[in-house]
Amino acid sequence: MTARRLALLAVPALLVCSSLAAVAVGPATAAPPPEAVCGVCGDGLADAAENEGIRLTAEYGAATIRVDESGTGHWAARVRVDDRSADRLAANATLRERVVRASLDRRTVVDDPRNLHTSVANDTLVVTFDQPDVAHESLGGVVLVDLLDPRTRRSGLDLEADELRIEGPNGTVVSRAPPAGTVEDGAVVWRPTDDEPGFGSDTRLAFAPSDGPGARALTTVGFVAFGVGLAEPGALVLGLAPALGLGALLVVVRRWGDELPTVDPSRLGYVLTRASAVAVLAAFGSIFWLDLVAPAVAETVLTFAVLYALVGNLAADADSLSARGALAWTLGAAVLVAVAASTVSIVALQTALLSVPAVLWFPLGRAHGRDRGVAALVTLSLLAAPFGGAVLYAPSASPVLGLVLSAFTTVPWAAATVAFGVPLYLLGRGPDDTGDPSEADGRASPASAD
């Protein structure tokens, strides 16, 4: 097999292998049962009371969690119970506290309730307590609610309340609300319905000192940075397979790149930029009008398509552009898109970061036979990118689980990176690379040829 055929087959081979691997593997372990946020609002209270000989019926349960500047959560729960149970709990404070503590000791998010107080008024059990380390302050005074962040938990969350309200520190507003909750008077409120009985899959919540694009950007960056901070060494295993695959492909490109087919920059550039424009319009339409796909998918497509169009438009007319100029433009476009994406959503910002390796193929192609320094820098960046992607995909993973997860996370991502990157590489390399590099616009000499 010639080097040209080997290089041409690399992209579909990666795509097919990653697809087969994703089908062949399944979830490694089952998730543990969810934990209740309001441990005294539902069945937990009835079960704890029954163990004390009280046949209690919880008719309505509501809780408010107020998060202060130190990250401590202050719980205030009100549970309306039947008359007989209310009388027994009101008459015996020791029994009442024992029942409440037992309900909190089951599968709840509360590990050690502090300053616990209980009372009964108008057939309503009132419970207040504090729990530290519910949230932390991030960039620009933004407060991220760790209690609801799925990356800090091994189990899911169970509402177990007719109403749950979470308030931020005094003077803050909601800068990021989960889709299942509604923003009311500067707080986020959940009320279970038939369509949405719980928290939903996306539970990340944040409060900021002010509203606006800047606050949203800081919130998004804070969430992404928090995930990176949670990364464990085992998660880097997710980047091993794609790094090896990219390394092998880059060796092929470096050694036999001259055998790759030449392209017509105007024709290929036209196809890439027009296809990107169509993707942008389709994503915009799906987000604002048509609802063709899930919002997260539309945001992913939109972010990548915008970045790809910005780089592809320049790559289509790059004959007079140096390798360093191509690298500067590519990085500048990536920063611009990342800043804009940070005001949209966490998914959009992560997509912008994960899209950078794909567009780096353009300056790699521009550096071919022209600038060894740029070629080496981009090559090292591409080899390191899978490990950065591993941290974004799964901050915490054991080595064995990491290898399994890579089959349907970082490996398909690397395949897509190559699939979209190679056309930019061909545009950057240009048709004049088939000749002597020293004759290519006077930009390289035989001594500096790659």
TrEMBL record:
Biological classification of the source: Archaea, Methanobacteriati, Methanobacteriota, Stenosarchaea group, Halobacteria
Transmembrane segments: 235-256, 268-290, 296-316, 328-353, 373-393, 400-426
Source species, domain of life: Archaea
Name recorded for this polypeptide: Uncharacterized protein
Keyword Transmembrane helix part of the UniProt annotation: yes
Assigned keywords, A-Z: Membrane, Transmembrane, Transmembrane helix
Entry keyword annotation includes Transmembrane: yes
